[in-house]
């Protein structure tokens, strides 16, 4: 393993400030978005009527945008910038400046977008589907967030390239490699949404053009929307592969396997957007079929990750003297929140991933599409597996960056917070999955459909969802408390855990670092999956739609 990775040097102070700015902004977004989630859950559960002037769908938009788009993006960029700084020495001045430009663009975009939502001028939910039309300033705000994230991506790539040039013939640090894969995937994927926003939504919302090709806009959105979910997942996987083995006192099972799984994510996470559009007319079955096959390919690297995690746990346990089939389980560090929170995320990812496989199966998608099942699915994936891992990272990253210690009291409270989050999610997401199968639709305010017997049957589940939401909000407040506490603990050193590779692991093939090969394959796969159907949508456009403001 590259010695650079193993140096016990803290992240450079100037880079730490940049990373901390991202993390703090992320948690502010999480708190506001979480409050919106609490209120909307109570409305849907029939426990609360919103005061005049605040709409259910307005809250839902604030919740989705701030949690799914803003919290995640800021957290991920903060984490990856700190990881690049740590494993490649430090950020070069030009990279650090690009990081700050990115931060300013993203925060400006977020503030403008949030103001538009609060003014009720952008109640279009986090997917901002046309023909619902927001204020043009909302779309401009989104464009600023995307462009800002590109600056940060370029900052990381600039540093990585410099490291490669100055370490000729050496394998790059695993964490840096994974961060670059994540950002390459993100930057290719965001081209789709950038085209949608710049060439379709902004001209149409300003009234420069009358109509919009809805099918094309949704396709461009999902070109971005599916890799978006892996943009959330991959940083969590970075923690599982690179950080967790060190935290549990073991070694990484295989560097080669970890890199290969990330390469597979890069290849297969983009050309699969149609699995979100399986129920939409206008896309031929053939192209849906091709993208469903590719969707099943993108499941493989997650299965590889599961295998690798089990192998790491078992090897570490046996090295510590554990016996029997499951003896390794007992010797895991259950009192360490750096392990406990991501581990809870891993466990939850087993049913969460199984739900994804159900969604991706065409016939079953017909049963679950647009029901609360899907909402349940993404609360288990992004809001549990990913969020819990991000919390786990926060518990060591913040004190590392601020030169503080992670105290036993915070370990304990962190474990309570994790358990509460998991319990809240059990109620909320469990009810969503179940009632979704009974047909309860997603994205719907409180209604009994004139006391229809089916809708009456859904009500207890909606109440359980609200109760889960309340428990989750308590856990969120504890997380914010812990974050503030982490910035006030006694001064000292907290480790940035980076694992070594186990002895006897397969050597990593040099081919894995041939970026030209992988990026060319990405382009080819995208062309296979999208060129014909998108050309068809442009050459034979559906009748365009004028804008609607439905709220
Ligand atoms: Fe999904 C809809 C398919 C994964 C997020 N997904 C969504 C939406 C979101 C989302 C936000 O095909 C809604 C979008 C909207 O608003 O409309 N999803 C999949 C598939 C996977 C998948 C096949 N999704 C995710 C992840 C997300 C996420 C990850 C966020 C982070 N999803 C779909 C489909 C839809 C969809 C359709 C559209 C539905 C519709 O009709 O609208 C796969 O990537 C899942 C693979 C995962 C696994 C699990 C591996 C398990 C691991 C844990 C190991 C545990 C250990 C601990 C080691 C196969 C790695 C064990 C220890 C012990 C002691 C036991």
Describe this structure in words.
This protein is mainly alpha-helical. It has one domain (about 15-540): Cytochrome C Oxidase, Chain A (Up-down Bundle), CATH 1.20.210.10. Helix content is about 70%, strand content about 0%. It has helices spanning about 5, 15-45, 55-90, 95-120, 135-165, 175-205, 215-245, 255-270, 285-320, 325-330, 335-360, 360-370, 370-400, 410-435, 455-485, 515-540. Helix 2 (about 15-45) packs parallel to helix 4, helix 2 (about 15-45) runs antiparallel to helix 15 and helix 11 packs parallel to helix 14. The longest helix has about 35 residues, at about 285-320. It is globular, with a radius of gyration of 23 Å. The chain binds heme-as (HAS). Heme-as binds near residues 276, 298, 357, 369 and 382.
Structure keywords:
551 residues, Cytochrome C Oxidase, Chain A, mainly alpha, 16 helices, globular, disordered N terminus, binds heme-as
- In helices, the fraction of residues equals over 70%
Taking the alpha carbons of the first and last residues, their distance comes to 56 Å
Please provide the ordered H/E string of secondary-structure elements: HHHHHHHHHHHHHHHH
Strand content: under 5%
Please name the CATH architecture.
Up-down Bundle
**In CATH, what is the homologous superfamily?**
Cytochrome c oxidase-like, subunit I domain
Global structural class: mainly alpha
Overall 3D geometry?
A: globular
CATH topology: Cytochrome C Oxidase, Chain A
Count of DSSP strands: 0
Report the uncertain regions: 1-6
Helical element count?
16
What is the highest CATH level, the class? Mainly Alpha
Mean pLDDT score: 96
Ions, cofactors and other ligands present here are: heme-as
Rg (CA only): 23 Å
């Amino acid at each position: 393993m590259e010695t650079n990775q193993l140096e016990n040097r803290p992240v450079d102070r100037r880079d730490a400030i940049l990373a901390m700015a991202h993390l703090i902004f992320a948690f502010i977004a999480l708190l506001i978005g979480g409050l919106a989630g609490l209120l909307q859950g109570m409305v849907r559960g029939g426990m609360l009527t919103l005061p005049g002037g605040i709409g259910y769908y307005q809250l839902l938009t604030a919740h989705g945008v701030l949690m799914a788009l803003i919290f995640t993006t800021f957290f991920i960029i903060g984490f990856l910038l700190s990881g690049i700084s740590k494993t490649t020495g430090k950020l070069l001045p030009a990279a650090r400046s690009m990081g700050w430009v990115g931060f300013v663009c993203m925060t400006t975009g977020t503030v403008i977008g949030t103001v538009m939502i609060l003014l009720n001028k952008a109640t279009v939910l986090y997917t901002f589907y046309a023909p619902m039309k927001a204020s043009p300033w909302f779309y401009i705000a989104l464009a600023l967030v995307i462009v800002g994230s590109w600056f940060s991506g370029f900052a990381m790539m600039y540093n990585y390239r410099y490291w490669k040039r100055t370490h000729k013939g050496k394998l790059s640090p695993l964490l840096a490699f994974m961060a670059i894969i994540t950002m390459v995937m993100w930057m290719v994927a965001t081209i789709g949404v950038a085209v949608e926003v710049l060439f379709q939504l902004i001209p149409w919302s300003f009234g420069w053009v009358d109509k919009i090709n809805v099918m094309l806009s949704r396709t461009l959105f999902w070109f971005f929307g599916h890799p978006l979910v892996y943009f959330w997942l991959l940083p969590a996987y970075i923690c599982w592969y690179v950080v967790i083995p060190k935290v549990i006192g073991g070694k990484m099972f295989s560097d080669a396997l970890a890199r290969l799984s990330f390469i597979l994510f890069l290849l297969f996470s983009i050309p699969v957007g149609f699995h979100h559009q399986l129920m939409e007319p206008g896309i031929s079955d053939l192209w849906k079929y091709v993208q469903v096959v590719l969707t099943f390919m993108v499941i493989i690297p997650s299965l590889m990750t599961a295998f690798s995690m089990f192998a790491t746990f078992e090897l570490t346990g046996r090295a510590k003297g554990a016996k029997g089939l499951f003896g390794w389980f007992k010797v895991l560090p259950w009192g360490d929140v750096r392990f406990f929170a991501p581990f809870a995320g891993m466990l939850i990812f087993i049913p969460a991933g199984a739900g994804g496989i159900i969604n991706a199966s065409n016939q079953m998608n017909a049963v679950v599409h647009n029901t609360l099942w899907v909402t349940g699915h993404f609360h288990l994936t992004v809001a549990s597996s990913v969020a819990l891992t991000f919390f786990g990272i926060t518990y060591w990253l913040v004190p590392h960056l601020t030169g503080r210690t992670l105290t036993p009291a915070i370990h304990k409270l962190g474990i309570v917070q994790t358990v509460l989050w998991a319990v809240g999610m059990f109620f909320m997401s469990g009810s969503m999955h179940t009632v979704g199968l009974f047909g309860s639709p997603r994205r719907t305010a409180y209604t009994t459909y004139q006391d229809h017997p089916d809708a009456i049957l859904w009500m207890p589940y909606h109440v359980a969802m609200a109760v889960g939401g309340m428990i989750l909000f308590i856990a969120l407040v504890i997380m914010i408390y812990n974050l503030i506490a982490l910035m006030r603990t006694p001064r000292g050193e907290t480790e940035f855990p980076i694992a070594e590779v186990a002895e006897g692991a397969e050597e990593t093939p040099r081919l894995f670092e041939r970026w030209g090969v992988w990026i060319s394959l990405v382009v080819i796969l995208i062309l296979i999956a999208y060129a014909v159907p998108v050309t068809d949508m442009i050459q034979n456009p559906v009748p365009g739609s004028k804008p609607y403001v439905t709220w």
